[in-house]
Amino acid sequence: MSATLEPDAPTPAAVVWDPSLLRYRFSAEHPMAPLRLDLTHRLVDALGLLDAPHVSILQPPVATDDELAAVHGREYIAAVRAASAQTSSDDAAHGLGTEDCPVFPDLHESAARIAGGSLVAAEAIWSGRVSRAVNFAGGMHHAARDKASGFCIYNDCAVAIQRLLDLGAERVAYVDVDAHHGDGTQAIFYDDPRVLTISVHETGMSLFPGTGFANETGGPAAEGTAANVAVPPRTGDAGFLRAVHAVVPPLLQAFAPDVIVSQHGCDSHHADPLADLRLTVDGQRQLAFDMADWAERFAHGRWLATGGGGYNPLKVVPRAWTHLTAAVLGTPVPLRAPIPAEWLAHARELTSEDLTGDMSLHEGAEDERIPTTMGEDADVWWRSWEVGYDPADPVDQSIMATRREVFPLHGLDPWFD
Q: What confidence tier does 88 reach under pLDDT thresholds 50, 70, 90?
């Protein structure tokens, strides 16, 4: 009698979550609203993604000053603490008290908790307790060593990467698909040959922070360990996916990282108010599952995913990061799956006090900004690089600029690899 083959057990995976993450709240009007996280967690939970036996929940501790000081200056950490105690204080030298990064009483602790979440996720991955983890509250990629920037106080991605290095990782790849350049993470590791930072983003000629061009390739001792693809506005799913696939997998294969840390800001969506890349949730979902595949192929299955930007808290963020969570957990949610009734009911009960800008709803009103399915029925087909290069295509021009600068430094042919 032949033996019955049991299906492979799902890979152990973890989600970083605790309601205390919602305390990272600059103001009622600020676009970095904790509602984004609350609605994401509610949707992940409503779809049953947290119920599987291979899934664990990681509680995010407040990172200690010593843990933060692995990538941030101690004077800067002290400045954040001081600003937390003086909510009217301005500290332009450290980027605090600005329109982007106003201060509030819980500033240090709430920002350090986000960093702590990515740190414990990195530790869980390196220890082998899990192979994958997601901290969708993280992704604070603009925070520099000594300065807050772009809604970001402490760079949790950098904290996690440094922790992996300290634990014994020899090479870590950081892949950033936020609409904005991952400038803070790049700068922190610009001279470290053990860290490859790749960012695909809307060009800095039209969007904050104004950096991230093809000629930014790493410091003198780390040439080729920074790669930037600055695509034009209105690139859309097909162009963005083409750019990512033309650059990311060849570099990952050449670099052979021990772990991938990724940043999945969903401000690339066509309904996001702060950028103009015009992707869909379907395209963003594809990027998440691509990253899962690359972690398996190039990084021994080890993958830490984070959130990032994303400022449409009803239509975009919950769906995009629920698909990201599903990719990390290995439990895909179909694009045509209906959104659970309890999530829809909660969204419809939200008052204008809960939301920012013109996203408020009126009692009893149906609103097209509350989605009812997990996708947008978009066509995410893209031309692979192997099909050929169009010198008149602005996206291809951006891709080729990056490949020319970086690929030869990894022994790759900028035209064919």
A: low
Active-site amino acid positions: 142
In a domain, 7, yes or no: no
In this structure, what are the phi and psi dihedrals at residue 402, rounded to the nearest 5 degrees? -70, -45
- pTM metric for this prediction: 0.94
Say yes or no to pLDDT of 357 above 80: no
- With a CB cutoff of 8 Å and minimum separation 6, the contacts of 171 are 194, 195, 196, 255, 256, 257, 258
Q: How far is 52 from 316, CA to CA, in rounded Å?
A: 25
Q: Is 159 exposed, middle or buried, given 0-12, 13-18 or 19+ CB atoms closer than 10 A?
A: buried
Give the residue-averaged pLDDT of 249-270: 98
Residue 357 to residues 112, 155, 256, 312, 395, Cα–Cα distance (Å): 27, 27, 44, 10, 32
| Domain that residue 184 falls in | 13-410
> Does residue 322 form part of some domain?
yes
Find where tokens 């995410």 sit. Answer: 380
Q: What is the CATH number of the domain that holds 43?
A: 3.40.800.20
**5 located within any domain:** no
Residue 352, SS3 per DSSP:
coil
What is the DSSP secondary-structure string of 37-106? HHHHHHHHHHTTTT-STTEEEE--PPPPHHHHTTTS-HHHHHHHHHHHH-TT--BGGGTBSSSSS---TT
Instruction: List, for residues 123-166, the tens digit of each pLDDT value.
Output: 999 999 999 999 999 999 999 999 999 999 999 999 999 999 99
Residue holding tokens 């439990």?
331
∠ CA 170-164-101 to the nearest 5 degrees? Answer: 130
Structural domains in the chain (count): 1
pLDDT at 92: 87
Q: How far is the C-alpha of 309 from the C-alpha of 233, rounded, in Å?
A: 17
Is the predicted pLDDT of residue 102 greater than 80, yes or no?
Answer: yes
Tell me the pLDDT of the chain averaged across its residues. 93
Sign (positive or negative) of CA dihedral 88, 90, 91, 96: positive
Strand, coil or helix: 120: helix
- Residue 2 is assigned to a structural domain of this protein: no
The helix (run of H) or strand (run of E) holding residue 179 is none
